[in-house]
Amino acid sequence: MTGSLVPRALRAALLAAGVGGLAACSGGSGSGSDAGAAVLGQVGGLVGSEVGGLFGDEPEGPPPTMTREQIRGVGAAMITASIDDSPDAFFVALARNGPRVTYVTPTRQSITLDGMAMASTHGMGVDLAGYRSDREVDPLITQRPLRDWPARITRIYRYHDALGGMFTRSFDCDLRWLGTEPVEIYELDFELVQVEEVCRSPYRSMTNRYWVEEETGFVWKSRQFLSPERGSLDLKVLVAFSQ
Amino acid sequence: MVRAALASACAAAAVPLAAPLVVSPAAAQEPPPPRRETQNLFGITGLIDTPSARVQPDGQLSFTAGYFGGFLRNTLSFQVLPRIEGAFRYSMLNKFFSPNLDLFDRSFDIKILLSDETKNFPAIAVGLQDFLGTGIYSGEYVVATKQIRPDLTLTGGFGWGRLAGTGNLRNPLTFFSDGFEDRDTVRLQTGTVRFGQFFRGPDMGVFGGLEWRPNFLPGVSVKAEYSPFDYSIDAGFGDFEQEIPFNFGIDWQATDLISVGAYAMYGTTFGVRATISTNPGVDIAPQDLGPGPLPLRPRPPVEQGPPPGLGPVVERIGPAPAPGSDLALSTLELEAATEGARWAIAQLPPGASDGTCPEGTALDIDAQLGVIDGVTFRDATGAPICSVVLRPAGQRYVETKRLRRGGYDTAWFSDPAQHERVTERVRAALRADRLDMVSFSLEPQRVRLEIANPTYNAPPQAIGRAAVSLANALPPSVEDLEITLVEQTLPVVTVILRRARLEAVAETPDEERDSWLGAQVVDTPPRPGSPLPEFTGYPRYSWFITPALPISLFDPDAPLRADPSIRAGARLELARGASVSGSVIKSLFGQFDDIDRPSDSTLPHVRSDYRFYLQEGDPGVERLTADYLFKMAPDVYGRVSAGMLERMFGGVSGEILWKSVDRDWGLGAELNYVRQRDYDMLAGFRDYDVITGHGSFYWDTGWNDMELQIDAGRYLAGDYGATFTLSRRFSNGWEIGGFFTLTDVPFDEYGEGSFDKGLFLTIPLRWGLPFETRERVPITIRPLTRDGGARLEVFNRLYPIVREADRTDLQKDWGNFWR
Fold first, then answer.
1. Given CB atoms, is B501 within the 8 Å cutoff of chain A?
2. So what's the ipTM on this one?
3. Tens-place pLDDT, residues B11-37
4. Nearest Cα residue in chain B from A21
5. Phi, psi torsion values for A100, nearest 5 degrees
6. CB contact under 8 A, A17 and B472
7. How far, in Å, are A129, A130, A227, B703 from residue A160 at the CA level?
8. B374-378 and B343-347: which strand pairing?
9. What is the C-alpha separation between B19 and B420, in angstroms, rounded?
10. A91 contacts in B (CB within 8 Å)?
């Protein structure tokens, strides 16, 4: 289900784009200014432009990473994402559209989060084109203490078809707590509750996982469904987005 | 890392139940995976040698090679429509004419699914086998198929012609008319539709069988059938014999693309089948690798009060019952000059307004006036009370009124340095998205951008990338983004997008639909001074060297010849629309040198001497032309070409096309004076010349992607007639179709095949590659190359240039806008 779709060398060859196109940035926070390009460039410089996104070539040495000090130095909201046990790719908040924040890598892959729900992606091979749920019920969108999370929720994912149109996959998801566990995210230690979400559509099933701060309901780490072809993305919040 | 102990301890801890959830998806739910049906040895959906009433998924394209007993059948089949399956077959029958002479036969099949399978009734289909061809396999059938258990399917049918076999039953149609007794035996001469033969003959056969799909072997089908075919005709001087009328075998769907089968045939021999099958509507490569679009970053908000003259705006878009209102109105009229919106003005009588907005009355007015986009309520003094927006067109009108009110500073416009910075910023952003800026002009609240799209297969994706580049780069006061697509130097369509609307819908669940609703699609007017050429920014040049693989099909001496070659070309643009371009081809191995079939045509040899061009034109100038493409009006295009127009003819060519982006049909006219080129494909000419030309009608029917084209006029051999082309063009660039030409050349004078006909398909490479490209592979399959109905080939005809940029095509493909 999460197998590689194309050879790594080919995928790496596709990551030739830089950030030269970044220009005026307004609205949002984190890098919400003309500094967007500079911030992305800074991150790219730290982790290396060739491996600044997902699907980079296997590095010869240890995977590039960032220290907490470097992360603070970026001065913007940041997340990481990985897929198929790949090294973490670093995404910087670059735009805010209403409640949704888009995080971008130096290689122009992007993830848009609505709260902590993955709302769309770009550059992932088979992208998530859109996401819909009941905003009032969805604890990923409307943050609330874990005790107030629902037991069941419907998540609707939208995708491109091959003919320029869209189709949806609608999943009914049952949530359950798996227990508290220590989680380290780039030198920060948390005690988080793991919530497992088993989801079923008429033809498919998948599992999301969230590592949640019990009192606030903030999701620091998650594994969220991307597409049947690509599997799930593992997301970690390095610097939370703030208004 | 999940710790098992914690997991088990907390597994039962469920969080409280949520409130009921009501969400409505905007796009269709993922369909169930279709059941894959297997082809038979004829390449049509069926059992082993007989057909079934099953068909392939809509749009499925398959190539099947089947062999047994000295009979090889190569079949290209296509699920033309959900209920119509068509096939073209090239068969080789060993030793048909003599121990040393085989038959190479071309034939067409069609199968129509009359009724779907239900719980109690089977699927029923009717089919015509070899209805257009020599008739060696000519037969008709009515067949039914029913799944009687989840793993077991039963098929049975009646057949005529070859499917009557040795005659199981008397043809029941002969009871109605003695005329049904007569059926020609195989004549091996015609290329016409055998209308007079269908369902005729003294006998009718029965056929049928079982297909078992064991649950424990996914992808495997076990088949047994009773076949009435009589192969005594086909065997000729071969040694194939039938002992029993039964066949048994196994099919295996190895992958989504490939299936194979092995069979025991008629008690005497074995047969094999291999099928490669794909579907234009299913991507075979990941489509979302590579750099994505940058996110659209909204401008900082400005304080905006109600639009002038409208009062507070209330949106009531979507279905809602009219509550019924007894509010009296003094006057009610439609406002003029509302940029396309139907906007009503309703004035209330004195004392009727308490300051609240009468939203319910707006719905009444909508019903009364017959669909309006919004209404403004005014009090007795004419002052606006409020406005109610009922439809998206009303939203755009309100946005326009807001824009006119202003808000963002436009002082930057008087600073030339700002212009330059903005231009460079946009150019760099477009370059990063691999788009070319053709022209760019700024106004305080509007930008006009012309782009050439060498990258994206879907035009809306290019428009979307350009729109985001503009929105992220332009000063905040620029509201209207006017983006024109330029194809081969012709501006083919302009899309006007409101920046505020894009900001409002970006990253929302229905961003594609909402951005389309806010887009205006208009014909691009000619540039100032057009149709005279525009020299600013020119000359430009480009060149290429690429491998090429010309193919020769259906020569009985070698049914498939491929000649690996190298093609080189160059293009020099002297002004906008004016260019000189050409290409040269050189064979690497001379695979066509042994073609020695002389033409027996009694018409001027305008095509049938093709072998001399292949053999002597090596290297040869395929094309060398001077071209001028221009616009005469927003929806009228023109082209003038001169030079070596194609491999076999040179001369002058002129064309005019009328095609509006708002219409699904267009008209064209083309006139050419051409002379036949020397076989060496260099600068010389032969002594045959002709005036040829056509009037053309193009129609995108809007039904199942079907398109119709009719070209009527004079052909290269001087014959008069018309070409009818019907194709299915998918929005991702796949196109599969067929054509035939009828002219005043009688069938017997035309020669073998009776008239020109063929199939064509166009494959977009993007469909199969994990990166963006606009390259497409066109393939035309003509059973025969003759001289009647031969049309001049012009590489830059206008309709193919403009047809993917009209409103219908953009709308179909708009899902790629934010991609």
1. no
2. 0.84
3. 333 333 333 333 333 578 888 888 899
4. B429
5. -100, 135
6. no
7. 7, 9, 11, 22
8. parallel
9. 56
10. none
